[in-house]
Amino acid sequence: MNELTVRAEDNFLAQFEQRKELANTLLKSKFLPTAYTTPEQVLTVMLKGAELNIPPMEALSGIHIIQGKPTVSPQLML
After folding, report:
1. pLDDT at position 35 over 70
2. Do 37 and 23 form a contact (C-beta atoms < 8 A)?
């Protein structure tokens, strides 16, 4: 794990309660891909996005879970 990843996780965890509330709100909005059904799934993808320095909404639309692993879509790679 590199230093940038550690800082992204620390920042993410420092705002965990706000992010948890955001995850619940986003799920209720029904604007997320249908694959996301729990706040935990949303938070996990948001954390992966933070590690990659990707904003939450961009991460939620461009990171897909394939066989249980977060995978960056080709569009997001560009």
Report:
1. yes
2. no
Query: Which residues does 12 contact at the CB level (< 8 Å), separation at least 6?
Result: 19, 46, 47, 50
Place of tokens 């029904």: 30
Mean of pLDDT values over 35-59:
93
DSSP of the chain, one letter per residue? --HHHHHHHHHHHHTHHHHHHHHHHHHHHT-S-TT--SHHHHHHHHHHHHHTT--HHHHHHHEEEETTEEEE-HHHH-
pLDDT for 51 beyond 80: yes
Stated pTM of the model: 0.78
